[in-house]
Amino acid sequence: MIQLIAFYLFALVVIASGALTILSRNPVHSVLWLILAFFNAAGLMVLVGAEFIAMLLVIVYVGAVAVLFLFVVMMLNIDFTELRAGVARYAAVGVLLAVALVAEIIVAVGAWQAGALSLGRRVAPIDAAVPNIEAIGRLLYTRYLFVFEGAGLVLLVAMIGAIVLTYRKRSDVRPQNVSRQINRRSKDATRNMNPPVGQGVEL
User: Are 190 and 203 a contacting pair, CB within 8 Å?
Assistant: First the structure.
């Protein structure tokens, strides 16, 4: 009974926060609603026994992806009003994609109701005593090691792109020349002055 109540609570919050993510006019509020949706989706994963997926949602998506979205939205200063003005031009494409997505969902539900597929030897036996995190780790770092490393390279490229997009040269700020500071001699950094009494120092 408690699990059923928790499921409906998490599910309702996920649906509500997902809708508010789309409908919020402030992009920062949209990212915050998205973070709330991730947290509640992690709760749903815990209910079904997929604690590894729940951990990924909290650590990776909330701790990295959503925070990255928030920083990008705040630093790029995007004019979302101008972006929303051109939504009507792509309404037909959006409707077409929505219809295709609904069709895929209907096909997936029909295949699920038809019964489980017989995959034969492709199904790897998993010991019930081994936690799913350990089983995923063994598979990830043995069979799919190169795919995992490739995903890391893709994330590295995305990080470099975010840095390039947010870097701006400002004319009102004097840049720091590190090599010039290191190569400066001590006698060039200080000047011994002996001004007369009652007079200041001329720089």
Answer: no
